[in-house]
Write a structure and sequence with these properties.
The protein is built from 18 helices and twelve strands. The protein is of the alpha/beta class. Strand 11 and strand 12 form a beta hairpin.
């Protein structure tokens, strides 16, 4: 049986974090030997207390590892990458405490590209959501894989924007068979089809509070840089930014009005040395990746030659001086809903309209 199986087995045992597993494997000489370590060896080589060591041994005795490994590999909708595998993301392997195992659904190879994380608050403002979608869209169009955490607000907007033009990766704080929050179930499915879902947690793991720092560490570890769009002064996004600094990643921030609570976090980061950015181009320039930027054709036409836009698109823009639903736009313009949806995608790519909610759009002033 492979050493990968024993490493996976170690990840299923209680009280064994990534650094403890690494130390135990090095001391015992192999993943197999570490998996079968006695309580005394666990105490001697991993520094684990007596009660915890006994709990690990009891759990291992109830685990039919070979059978569980076989069941896992019968699932065609699930992939597994360990420290020992060539497809384990190289950037993540280089951080201080990478997870020994990653579960994934989708295209893990998209993480071989340059990757930028976009993070921020869940209760984001329309401005913040617009910034996040635009950054995600433009970075993905430049060949960057956009990484975030599938949370409501800034995370979801970043994923949505990047799906319009390229690849995105979502790191979960649950098992891959649990979508949290449930509202993002459809978004999760789209990411699985056009990017990758990643989790360090076994199937069936619910959304526990303690899972999310580990998720955030992976988000920053997979990235070459992280952008904070909106965040309060005590937001989890600032913790992710601090982890990024510890991992020697660049941190960028979108500045905001000092009176806006959502701008407190990014403004604080800028005071502390984060790089102020005004859009995706600034990130690409800082990363010396601007040569890869390929803005969508519709954007260059709409921004440089508005008069060349179809008359139907101009009619939609005239209607969108206030937020309107797709159904309302279809009634006002007399256009089929399918046509309205297609034009809205193009106008959003062009940065001329922004999505405020499901099916609700407004012109960007």
């Amino acid at each position: 049986m492979s050493q990968q199986m024993y490493l996976w087995g170690l990840s299923l045992l209680p009280h064994l974090g990534s650094m403890t597993i690494r130390r135990l494997v090095e001391s015992m000489g192999s993943e197999m030997a570490a998996f079968y370590a006695s309580a005394r060896q666990l105490q001697a080589y991993a520094g684990i207390g007596g009660e915890k060591a006994e709990a690990i041994v009891r759990t291992r005795s109830r685990l039919n590892l070979k059978s569980a490994w076989a069941r896992l590999h019968k699932r065609h909708d699930l992939g597994l990458a360990t420290w020992l595998d060539s497809n384990y993301p190289m950037r993540l392997k280089q951080i201080y405490d990478p997870p020994p195992v990653l579960y994934f659904q989708g295209e893990l190879s998209c993480l071989e590209r340059p990757a930028i994380a976009i993070v921020g608050r869940r209760r984001a403002s329309p401005r913040g959501l617009g910034w996040s979608r635009r950054l995600g869209r433009d970075l993905a169009a430049a060949g960057i894989t956009v990484i975030s955490g599938l949370a409501l607000g800034i995370d979801a907007a970043a994923h949505e924007g990047s799906l319009q033009t390229g690849k995105t990766a979502a790191v979960l704080g649950t098992g891959l068979d649990i979508t949290y929050p449930r509202r993002n179930r459809e978004l999760s499915w789209k990411i699985r089809q056009s990017g990758v879902l990643i989790s360090p947690f076994p199937l069936g793991t619910p959304p526990r509070r303690g899972n999310f720092p580990a998720r955030n560490r992976i988000i920053s570890g997979l990235s070459i840089g992280i952008v904070v769009v909106e965040a309060g002064e005590t937001s989890g996004a600032l913790i992710t930014a601090a982890m990024a600094v510890d991992q020697n990643r660049d941190v960028y921030a979108i500045p905001g009005d000092p009176s806006d609570r959502g701008a407190a976090g990014p403004n604080k980061l800028i005071q502390q040395g984060a790089k102020l950015i005004r859009g995706a181009q600034d990130v690409l320039d800082e990363m010396q990746l601007s040569c890869q930027l390929q803005l969508p054709l519709v954007e260059s036409i709409a921004m440089k030659h508005p008069d060349r836009m179809p008359g139907s698109a101009r009619r939609l823009l005239q209607c969108l001086s206030q937020p309107l639903h797709v159904d309302e736009l279809a009634m006002m313009t007399g256009l089929p809903i399918a046509t309205v949806n297609s034009l809205l995608v193009q106008l959003e790519l062009a940065g001329l309209v922004e999505k405020l909610d499901i099916g609700v759009f407004q012109r960007v002033s």
